[in-house]
Amino acid sequence: MAAQKDSTEQSAPAKSKIDTVFRDFIEKGGRFEPQAGEHPFVSPGSAVFDLLSKFIRANRLTIHSAWAHRTLILRKLKGLEDIIPVTIVSPMLGPQGWPFASVLPFPGADVDPLYNSKHIKDLYLKANPEYSARFSVPVLWDKQNHTIVNNESSEIIRMFNSAFNDLLPPEKAALDFYPADLRTKIDEINEWVFSDINSGVYRAVFSKTQSAYEKVVYEIFAALDKVEVILTGKDYLVGDQLTEADIRLYVTAIRFDPVYVGLFKCNIRTIRDGYPAIHKWLQKLYWNNDVFKATTDFEHIKTNYYASDSLISNNNPTKIIPVGPVPHIRPL
């Protein structure tokens, strides 16, 4: 069940991979059994899963966050909306971390339906009053035990892929985005996409010297060149089907032109004009599969990166949010 450990979005985004603390799994016979409505979900700039029943697992997350975005996509692809409720927090990161709408209202953001928490950090301290690390998202919460199940997005998407299959209709249970026969190749691609692209853009923006910045940026574009070769003449990264590898790359690719090119200084090329195969792959996912469009909110994405009180937003002291690119994603 274990997945590659990735860094997750933090109250102050980290420039390199960090340890996540809550690493339990929803599984039969385990501490957290798969039950409908028992695990809400939370994340910054995204949704927190709402309370649907007496015992509920919920997801707290944000729709601006690439790490949290992965989980929203898997949740919707698998038809888990009625099993894993979600709550959206405000994309406006502040001194206390990610706020709920009760503290900082924003279109599409929600209040905490379980405890009326003010910030994501309140849930961490409820789960463990001695907790002193970063308040990361997404968060998979167990209402019955009043604690965090897991806050590692790469593991949460694996749980969403299979842990609730017995509660789903057959057509949804049959969907497998980490199939056994493709796992070796998926893991291989995930490893360098994460290090050189997903995490690479953050290493670029947090670079402290010119030489360090240039080294990272050239690594990012070398990895994108590699993706371009893989996707030439293909619709998906691995095999002939949508897999976890596509989802993990999509959440960075969709943010690349609107945010990473300008604010993160990853500007050797844009996706739309520099990578025709990646661009076509991105367009097809967004326009041909409603799950990708429905879970992508450019207002939340750009507001978080350009206007929050964060280390990244310090690169934009006026907090002016750019209009472009226009359109955010070109039609097919």
Feature tags:
332 residues, alpha+beta, Glutaredoxin, Glutathione S-transferase Yfyf (Class Pi), Chain A, domain 2, 2 domains, two-stranded antiparallel ribbon, 12 helices, 38% helix, 6% strand, disordered N terminus
Description:
The protein is α+β, with helices and mostly antiparallel strands and 332 residues long. The chain has two domains: 40-173, Glutaredoxin; 180-315, Glutathione S-transferase Yfyf (Class Pi), Chain A, domain 2, CATH 1.20.1050.10. Helices cover 38% and strands 6% of the residues. It has helices at 66-77, 120-127, 153-162, 170-173, 183-198, 200-205, 210-231, 244-260, 271-274, 276-288, 290-294, 298-307, and strands at residues 40-42, 47-48, 57-60, 86-88, 139-142, 147-150. Strands 1, 3, 5 and 6 form a four-stranded mixed sheet that branches. α1 (66-77) crosses α8 (244-260), α5 packs antiparallel against α7 and α7 packs across α10. It is globular. Residues 1-5, 7-19 and 41-56 have low confidence and may be disordered. One of its GO terms (cellular component) is cytoplasm. This is Glutathione S-transferase omega-like 2. It comes from Hypsizygus marmoreus. The record marks 260, 305 as: Lowers pKa of active site Cys. One of its GO terms (molecular function) is glutathione transferase activity.
- CATH fold node name of the largest domain: Glutathione S-transferase Yfyf (Class Pi), Chain A, domain 2
- Category by helix and strand content: alpha+beta
Order of helices and strands: EEEHEHEEHHHHHHHHHH
**Radius of gyration using CA atoms only:** 19 Å
Residue stretches low in confidence (pLDDT < 50, at least 5 long) are: 1-5, 7-19, 41-56
Major sheet description: 4 strands, mixed
By DSSP (H or I, 4+ residues per run), the number of helices equals 12
- Into which percentage range does the β-strand content fall? 5-15%
Gap from first CA to last CA: 37 Å
Tell me, what is the CATH class of the largest domain?
Mainly Alpha
> Which percent range fits the helix content?
25-40%
What's the overall geometry? globular
**CATH architecture annotation name of the largest domain:** Up-down Bundle
